[in-house]
Amino acid sequence: MTDSTGPAPRRAIAPEADWDTAKALFDGGDGLVLSAEQCGIEYWFDNVPQGTLRGNVLGHAPDVVTPQLVLDEGPLHEALIREVAFRTLAEERAAASLSYLVLDAPNLACMEFYATQLIDETRHAMIFRRHLVGLGAATPDTVQDVIDELVGDDRQRILTPLENYVLPIIRDEHDFIGAVVLLTTLVEGVLAPSFEQSERKWRPLDPVMADIQKGAGIDEVRHLAVGSSLVRAHLEQHPKDTDRLVEIVRNGMHLFYELPVIEQLSGWEALYQEGIAQHADLLADYEIWPGHKLLDSTPEERIGKTFEMTARIHESRLTDMGLAAALT
Ligand code: FE
Ligand code: FE
What we know:
- The protein is 67% helix and 2% strand.
- By secondary structure, the chain is mainly alpha-helical.
- The chain is globular and about 60 Å long.
- The model has no long low-confidence stretch (mean pLDDT 93).
């Protein structure tokens, strides 16, 4: 007999949030179906801090440390700090946009879910920022200036145009579902595949970076799933809204493909390529994709793969939402 006065037994961690069982996007995670009702505050407290994060707010276990070889000045260090700085800022801006979804949530289920997503994105920004300090690129006092310097023009060229497109829709027009569509396709739909690629490329060189990306990726897969469910449910009830939302996505994707993302990735990948050549012995057996050795991959191939994966996610998510017409 159980003692009725004892503490309630801990609920099992949901498999999609469990560090050991969560499926990556390209490993079945893209098929995950979750609703805002399922993923409220209670779900988050039950699953994210102890399941995904395993009690590690910084996204990696204390015994997982960054090796000296990426701390030393050189192309790998440079490639890493540029990527971390940009991700910090991108997460921060995503969090800022999301705050309007909390504000304009049409019901409590949406408000709860977006409040958790707001915490997730703010946490992602915080851990990347902390990692920049951990990499020796900045001190807590200088980190903001260092981020601005490392990100440079990419802020105005990549992040600002996206924000200028998304913000009026939610902040000025209070178009909640339009903003959900955009954040799910343009922000989560781009971040999630790039996290998975980045996790693979940094895994043998900086396990801290890889673990940070893995944990954030688990969050992004959930954000994508819930965002898609909201749009699908909305269109089931309001099929006449389809054309309008298709137009919003189409224009957003058009904008996205005009941004100098390839230029940015080319800069990061060129440094990475130079860096991995210096550590060929360490990386000899590492496969970036199943059956494909990292050392045999080129910057163009890795960028191509990221775009290919992003396109696949766009296609499956838009189809799943009922907005496949935006793909034509
Ligand atoms: Fe994020
Ligand atoms: Fe997210």
